[in-house]
Amino acid sequence: MLRTILILGGSGEALALAAALAGWPGLRVITSLAGRTGQPRLPAGEVRIGGFGGASGLAAYLRAAGIAAVIDATHPFAARMGWHAAEACAAAGLPLLRLERPAWARREGDLWDDVDDWDAAVTLLGHRSRRVLLAVGRQDLAPFTALTDIWFLIRSVEAPQPWPPFAKALSLLAKGPFSYDEERALLLEHGIDTLVCKNSGGPTGAKLDAARDLGLRVVMRRRPSRPETPRASSLDQALAWEGLGLS
User: Fold this and answer.
1) pLDDT (tens digit, 9 = 90+) per residue, 176-233?
2) Class (C level, CATH) for 3-101+225-244
C-alpha cells in the first residue's frame, strides 16, 4: 500500500525534496503550489495547484486524499500557510515537518536595519534614502508608494497587476539567483543607496555581499513567526524525518 506524503511547496527546498522522493518504493508524493506564479517550476511527482480554503479545507483534503504526513516547505514568508498546516495536521492527527532554509546572518561590515513590517521600512527609507532597490516581490509594493521623493528600482519575477502608483520608479523583470558581479554592477549602474528585501535566506544573498562591499544600507524584513513544529534546515535532515517512514 502506498504511503502518501503531501509537500506544501513554493521553494527550492520543496523542489529538491520532491525530486529526492520521486520513485521511492511504496511512496506517493503530492506537491501543492499556491498558484500565484504564472509559470511555476513544477516539481517531480504529482502536483496540485490552488488554495485549500483555510485550515478546515486543508484538513478535509488531508483526510480525503489519505495523506500520511505533511512537509511544509513553503517560502519563509508564507506564514499563513504554515499556521493553517499546523492546525489542519493537528485536526487530522498527522505528523508535520517544517523544512526551511537558514536565514541570512549579519556579517562584519553589514549596514542592516531589521524591521518586522513594511511600515517600519517605509519610515526608515523616508529619513535617509533617495535611490532604492526594492526586491520584496510584486505583492508587497503598495506601502512604498507613499514615498514620493524616492526613486525606486523595482525588481520582480513578474510585473505587478495593476502597477502601483509610484511617483518615480523603474520596473526590472528578472529571476535570480544573480551573481555577485551582476548585483554589484546593477547597484552601481542605478546609483542605489539602499536595498530593501526580505530575509529569505538561500542562494540569493549576492545582493547583500555587493551592498556590504559598496557600503550601502540594507533594510531587511525579519521572518514572520511560525508554529512550533519539528524542523529541518536541510534536505538530508528532512529525508531522515521519521514521519516519512523511509527507514
Assistant:
1) 889 999 999 999 999 999 999 999 998 878 999 999 999 999 999 999 999 999 999 9
2) alpha beta
Quickly tell me which residue has 513567526 as its cell: 225
Q: Which amino acid, one-letter code, is at 234?
A: S
Length of the chain counted residue by residue: 247
Record the pTM: 0.89
Sheet with 96-99: list strands edge to edge.
46-49, 27-33, 3-8, 67-72, 96-99, 231-232
Question: Which CATH code for domain 111-221?
Answer: 3.40.50.720
Domain pair 3-101+225-244 / 111-221, same fold: yes
The separation between the first and the last C-alpha atoms of the chain, rounded to the nearest angstrom, is 16
Burial of 96 (0-12, 13-18, 19+ CB in 10 A): buried
Among 70, 94, 68, which Cα is nearest to 82's? 70
| Boundaries of every domain in the chain | 3-101+225-244, 111-221
Cell of 59: 484538513
Separation in Å, CA 116 to CA 77, 139, 199, 219, 220: 12, 17, 11, 10, 9
